[in-house]
Design a protein that fits this description.
The complex is a heterodimer of chains A (about 475) and B (about 250).
Chain A lengths: L7 H10 L1 H23 L4 H17 L1 H15 L2 E5 L2 H15 L3 E4 L3 H5 L2 H7 L3 E4 L2 H8 L16 H11 L9 H16 L4 E5 L3 E3 L4 E6 L3 H7 L3 E7 L3 E2 L2 H16 L6 E5 L7 E7 L3 H5 L15 H5 L1 H6 L10 H11 L16 H5 L6 H14 L5 H14 L2 H12 L4 H6 L21 H9 L13
Parallel strand pairs in A: 1-10, 2-3, 2-4, 4-7, 5-8, 7-10
Antiparallel strand pairs in A: 5-6, 6-9
Helix pairs in contact in A: 2-12, 3-12, 16-18
Chain B lengths: L1 E4 L3 H6 L1 H13 L3 E3 L9 H5 L3 H15 L5 E3 L2 H10 L7 H8 L1 E3 H8 L13 E4 L3 H6 L15 H6 L6 E2 L15 H4 L1 H17 L4 E4 L2 H14 L4 E4 H5 L5
Parallel strand pairs in B: 1-2, 1-3, 3-4, 5-6, 5-7, 7-8
Helix pairs in contact in B: 11-12
């Protein structure tokens, strides 16, 4: 717990200084939000679907052990090999062992936030396994040696010119050619040979794992997950234990909402169901906890496990859109990141719940009705109680609490302000470093406070009898 | 009807005209208004920062000042939200619970409790952008927000539509947060200011002369941004417009 806290405000400041980037980023994600609005408004029962999805997830999470065991039994009966991983280290070791047993040295994989969370790529690369991200956005990020900045659109913070520069340096495109089709095709041509390498294994994540059938479902738009899963003779799927749903009939509820919430499209291009290995091949599932069962035990935060990783909360978040995913310094960014990152490391991520205006838009768009902004509020309480607040903020609140808790001190402060002293803004705008005035004017100081006006104009009516200015 | 008036600290100090308009409007509408003189703040700055220990004295003072009133009215959505939904640092006695349940933001009091149908004294012949703060919008649910699929409703706008001559402009993102966010405005200054700039530009581009709002704290931030950018936008609280301010 000695990690230095991530300084979101500082990182966001750098992001904002690149004016073109922040404008583009904000507009592109807002566009996704608007498309999501149009799609959800076209479905009369949208709000019912949200309630249903939330209910299914809450039921599953409160019976998770049973459904996990049911999934294991059925998946095993289907011919899959099921592994359990308590944490990231176990997950990475399990994956490596499976690959080593097959003699695989190349891993073609589709996007998986879970493997990013486990920092699997680094672990495998150190052990001589070449890992190829095949999702276009994730590949761009891999080639640029950056983590994904968004859970659905990993390179959304990059302009075309940025991608051209990365590809120019890494896969030999012409750096002055910014054409999207040219760049996408170059990446495709560069990646394809890896799928058919004789030493290749394939990896996917999963959007849903179905207990009743022992099968899992992967929703994608690029086809890369299906190539990863279906060409090599070995398919490994890393699945967080919160991905369980009880039955196939529940799937429709989530499939109707996932892509609509994420990208504002009715459904992903491809929805693949994996039930059993093809003849002569192997299919392994790694069920990963990595802090999830501990989170499940947190009274105020366990419903964050309902998340289906659609990213709608990020797209709608006005702070995320203007600070970029990398400013959160964590695998999960935006509103959902703000409420789950502190479960991994409270100190390191102690500033993140403050990277929010608590406007509540995230909660309104969440397809599984996670009360995200209320959890942000509660995290702040936890952070203050566990003494993780920076001294400046802690002291500002102590002073504000003392002044605002006392009519006498409050009036002294307000009147000092009216006399042109600097005292009031300093406590009322909580302004230890005069941050207010960098890009904003202060309000003009009026001739009198409301209270002074009231005493002068209504003071003799007998109203305001409770206290009468005495303390 | 007897009403206790809560004037938030920042209105008391920076926008007394908003407090005066609220008081005069309630009196015009036949309310007998008490203004407990020992009031300070609702405790929101500390509570929203997670510092509930530091909020306790302020919350206790609020509960003491407003105990026994059936209607406590305030011209600030986020303060009302704090009292109603978050004033939990103090012991939840029956008196405290009653204070919390009896606290109303001005617009919902006018719209839901008094059910005011007309403001014959009011006229505001200007192009206005309506800004509803996020607490007012999503916590107090005074209007449909753009993310939720439900029939449209908008209480602040419904009241303003009863004011002669008013004309509403259509910003691109009418209910995106303006970035004030209380202490967010200083501890996350770069993002806060950027959001504020985007907000005032959106209203300005839509042709707004005024931004009218039930949330003066948002307006304080937006006004600061607009002035620095040199935009000619003017800001006015909904209480002032409903009370008959012409400009």
């Amino acid at each position: 717990m000695k990690a230095r806290p991530v300084d979101h405000a500082e990182a966001a400041s750098k992001f904002i200084q690149a004016t073109h980037h922040v404008e583009f980023h904000d507009k592109r994600l807002w566009d996704l939000r608007q498309k999501r609005d149009r799609e959800s408004e076209d479905i009369a029962e949208w709000e019912q679907l949200r309630a249903l999805a939330s209910g299914i997830k809450e039921h599953t999470l409160t019976h998770l052990a049973d459904y996990l065991e049911q999934f294991e039994r059925n998946a095993t009966a289907n011919g899959m090999v099921v592994h359990w991983a308590r944490d990231a280290a176990e997950h990475n070791q399990v994956v490596h062992d499976i690959l080593a047993a097959q003699g695989a040295t190349v891993l073609v994989k589709s996007k998986s936030m879970l493997t990013d969370e486990c920092e699997m790529r680094l672990f495998l690369e150190k052990r001589g396994i070449e890992v190829i991200e095949t999702d276009l956005g994730e590949r761009i990020q891999q080639l640029d040696d950056e983590p994904p900045s968004h859970i659905v659109v990993p390179a959304v913070h990059k302009l075309r010119a940025d991608v051209a520069e990365v590809f120019g340096k890494t896969i030999g495109t012409r750096a002055d050619n910014h054409d999207v089709n040219y760049l996408a095709e170059a990446q495709r041509q560069h990646t394809r040979p890896y799928y058919v390498s004789p030493r290749a294994a394939g990896m996917t994540g999963a959007n849903f794992a179905i207990a009743e059938t022992g099968s899992f479902v992967v929703c994608t738009n690029e086809g890369n997950a299906d190539l990863s899963a279906n060409i090599p003779p070995l398919h490994i799927a890393s699945i967080g234990i919160e991905k369980l749903i009880p039955k196939v009939e529940h799937l429709g509820v989530f499939i109707r909402m996932l892509s609509r919430s994420a990208l504002g499209s009715p459904i992903t291009q491809i929805t693949s169901h994996f039930r059993a290995p093809r003849p002569g091949t192997q299919m392994h599932v790694v069920l990963v906890d990595n802090g999830r069962s501990e989170r499940l035990g947190m009274e105020d935060f366990w419903t964050s496990l309902k998340c289906i990783r659609c990213g709608a909360c990020m797209n709608t978040c006005p702070v995320y859109r203007r600070s970029g995913g990398l400013s959160y310094g964590a695998t999960y960014s935006g509103p959902i990141g703000v409420i789950i990152d502190p479960t991994f490391n409270l100190r390191k991520y102690s500033a993140l719940p403050y990277a929010s205006t608590m406007n509540g838009s995230c909660t309104s768009v969440c397809p599984v009705k996670i009360n995200i902004h209320e959890q942000i509020y509660t995290w702040r309480k936890v952070i203050a109680e566990r003494r993780q607040l920076p001294m400046v903020k802690k002291e500002a609140m102590r002073v504000a609490g003392r002044i605002l808790g006392s009519p006498r001190l409050y009036r002294a402060a307000v009147q000092a302000a009216a006399a042109g002293l600097d005292y009031l803004p300093r406590f009322m705008i909580y302004n230890p470093f005069n941050a207010w005035g960098k890009q904003r004017e202060l309000p003009a100081t009026p001739a009198s406070t409301f209270r002074q006006w009231y005493l002068k104009n209504r003071g003799n009516t007998g109203n305001g009898s409770s206290g009468g200015g005495q303390e | 009807m007897k009403v206790a008036l809560f004037i938030p600290c920042y209105v008391d100090a920076f926008y007394p005209e908003v407090g005066i308009a609220t008081l005069e409007l309630l009196e015009r509408l036949g309310c007998e208004v008490d203004y407990p003189l020992n009031q300070t703040c609702c405790g929101q700055p500390m509570a929203n920062s997670g510092c509930h220990d530091d909020a306790r004295a302020t919350e206790a003072l609020f509960a003491k000042n407003f105990e026994g009133y059936s209607y406590i009215v305030t011209p600030s959505g986020s303060c009302c939200h704090q009292v109603r939904d978050h004033m939990t640092a103090i012991e939840q006695t029956p008196q405290v619970r009653a204070v919390r349940a009896n606290t109303y933001e001005l617009v919902e009091f006018l719209h839901d409790v008094l059910d005011v149908q007309e403001f014959p004294w009011a006229a505001f012949p200007h192009k206005v952008g309506l800004h509803i703060g996020c607490s007012t919008l999503r916590a107090l649910r005074e209007a449909k927000c753009s993310e939720v699929s439900e029939p449209a409703f908008n209480k602040p706008r419904a009241l303003l539509e009863r004011v002669a001559g008013i004309e509403f402009v259509k910003p691109q993102r009418p209910d995106e947060c303006c970035g004030f966010g209380g202490t967010f405005s200083v501890f996350e200054e770069p993002v806060s200011a950027r959001m504020g700039q985007d907000k005032v530009k959106d209203h300005s581009d839509a042709g707004a002369e005024y931004i009218v709002t039930p949330d003066m704290s948002c307006a304080m931030h937006q006004q600061g941004c607009a002035r620095r950018l040199g935009l000619p936008l003017k800001f006015i609280h909904i209480a002032q417009v409903l009370n008959g301010a012409r400009e």
